[in-house]
Amino acid sequence: MPRTLIEIDRFSDEPLYRQVRRAIEHGIAIGTFDPARRLPSSRQLATDLGVSRNTINLAYQELMAEGYVESKERSGLFINRDMRPRCAVQERDTRPRIDWGGRVRRFPDAGLAHIEKRADWARYPYPFLAGQVDVTTFPARSWTRCLRDALYRPHVFHSLQDSLGSDDPMLVDMVRRHLLTARGIEAGPDEVLITVGSQQGLDLLGRVLLGPDQVVGMENPGYLDARHIFLRTGARLTGIDVDAAGLRPPASLDGVDLLYLTPSHQHPTNATLSIGRRRELLRQAASAGTVIVEDDYDSEFRYQGSPTPALKALDGTGDTVYLGTFSKFLSPGLRLGYLVGPRELAGALREARRYVLRHPPGHLQRALALLIESGEYHRSLRRYRAKLMRKWSATCTAVTDHLAWPQPPYPPGGVSLWMTGPPELDCRRLVARAERRGILIEPGDIFFLTEDPPRHHFRIGFSAISQRSIVPGIRLLAEVCDEVLGEP
Ligand SMILES: Cc1ncc(COP(=O)(O)O)c(C=O)c1O
After folding, report:
1. What's the pLDDT score for residue 132?
2. Does residue 337 have its Cβ closer than 6 Å to ligand 1?
3. Domain end: 325, 343, 375, which one?
4. Quick one: how far is CA 166 from the chain centroid?
5. DSSP secondary structure letters along 325-368
6. Closest alpha carbon to 223 in 453, 448, 454
């Protein structure tokens, strides 16, 4: 029972036991008490309220005499379920005082579609989703050990203290030495900011760099969540087309304040930005004063050849802002990522973050640092990459074998295939029809920045689905595609 439920007024003329009784009676009437749970003992309630046990006993006796409360042998006192409807409750006016619809601020992204994630996705036999992981690949045992170790000396202070705006120095060190170097990036500790995922990195950049007068360039099709975040700052978006070699550099970046892109595996097509285009974009950005934001969300997952170095690694000025995440490996539910940028910018982002959430949870940061230091992070990553490669290969073969239209070679990376159906295929119908047959796929039209987006694309993710479900799932999807294509 909440302690605040019973308020005792020691100066009232009403006897204390009556006040207690009235408060409990009211609590019963408004449904505060769970009929399945024992009421507090007279000893406990007397201590909580600072009154004598006699006072409580008297109150309970009256409630029992009137049938509100009943005593169950060897279990204690419970409220009487049958009495509830008879309790006198004052009719409460539940109409809100405030017109919330009018009061809640309307952001400029209000009309934009959202990436939808079904909470019950794991119950579907064929979840072809890119934004979820196969939970069986999470290194649960090592993670549990790291979480435990992070609560003992010498780690416990970093896990539990209020760090204000600071990050865990051990995690920053691990990110710099073990993750950034693999991407060809050198950064000082004050150039790294730990985030609660790339999404927070984007939000902070929006808060610090963007406003209603700014223009943001984005890949078209591109990452819908980034579009929401940028639009919410009031900035204007301009879409830049994408082809098989990634974003096509425009004639110039003049007038573009910030360019957001996904060079390793373009989201959602998975194309890798060619080296020539990377150099051209850096040249254009330097000449136009454009801030480049590189979202390197799943570069670990390259299945042929070696990963291309990060765009940031090519930028001698150090101005490119880099976003990394632990959402693709280890898990999106952990909500951890990092941002690398020039010291001055990182400082401003840190200050902005301090007034949003101070810092990401210290315990998680230290546990992750320990996981990387132990070598288990990279061992698990290698295992996961090998598993994903098998899934990528099975998915490519299955779509080639079963879908009715010719398939292109798919880029050897990422966690999804970007599908281009015949022009008459309606991805919305396909998604809805597939869901009824137990298959989850994503519609492609939501990723386009254009007014009237093409509807014949869809996305098949293979990170969450089990290896053995891929072929039967694609075979069934091919049947659904045939049905949808065969309809008038
Ligand atoms: C393009 C892109 N960037 C970043 C992320 C990861 O975001 P976060 O780190 O906030 O989970 C995703 C996840 O789906 C993504 O698709």
Report:
1. 87
2. yes
3. 375
4. 22
5. ESTTTT-GGG--EEEE--HHHHHHHHHHHHHHHSSS-HHHHHHH
6. 448
> In the prediction, which pLDDT does 86 show?
52
Residue 99 placed within a domain: no
Q: What is the pLDDT of residue 387?
A: 96
pLDDT of residue 70: 92
pLDDT, greater one: 14 or 83: 14
CA of 61 to the centre of ligand 1 (A): 60
Q: Are residues 236 and 165 in the same domain?
A: yes
Number of domains in the chain: 3
**Contact 321/296 with Cβ under 8 angstroms?**
no
Mutate to test the pocket of ligand 1, among 325, 336, 415, 442 (most ligand atoms within 8 A of CB): 325
Residues 332 and 433 in one domain: no
In a domain, 96, yes or no: no
The CATH number of the domain holding residue 418 is 3.90.1150.10
Rounded to the nearest angstrom, the distance between the alpha carbon of 327 and the centre of ligand 1 is 7
Domain span holding position 163: 139-375
Q: Is the CB of 284 under 6 A from ligand 1?
A: no
| Percent of all residues in the chain with a pLDDT value above 70, rounded to a whole number | 97
pLDDT category of residue 268 using cuts at 50, 70 and 90: very high
How far is residue 385 CA from its own chain's centroid?
A: 21
- Please indicate whether residue 325, judged by its CB atom, sits closer than 6 Å to ligand 1: yes
Q: Are 245 and 391 in contact (CB under 8 A)?
A: no
pLDDT in tens, 211-266: 998 999 999 999 999 999 999 999 999 999 999 999 999 999 999 999 999 999 99
Q: Which two tokens stand for residue 178?
A: 């073990």
The answer, yes or no, to whether any atom of ligand 1 lies below 6 A from the CB of 206, is no
Same domain, 416 and 343: no
Ligand 1: nearest atom to the Cα of 267: 1
CA 452 / ligand 1 centre spacing (Å): 25
Mean pLDDT score of the chain = 94
How does DSSP classify residue 16?
Answer: H
Task: Check if 197 has its Cβ closer than 6 Å to any atom of ligand 1.
Answer: yes
Contact 131 CB / ligand 1 (< 6 Å): yes
pLDDT at 90: 54
Q: Where residue 244 sits, what CATH number does that domain have? A: 3.40.640.10
Q: Do residue 311 and residue 227 come from a single domain? A: yes
Q: How far apart are the first and last CA of the chain?
A: 62
Q: How confident is the model at residue 306 (pLDDT cuts 50, 70, 90)?
A: confident
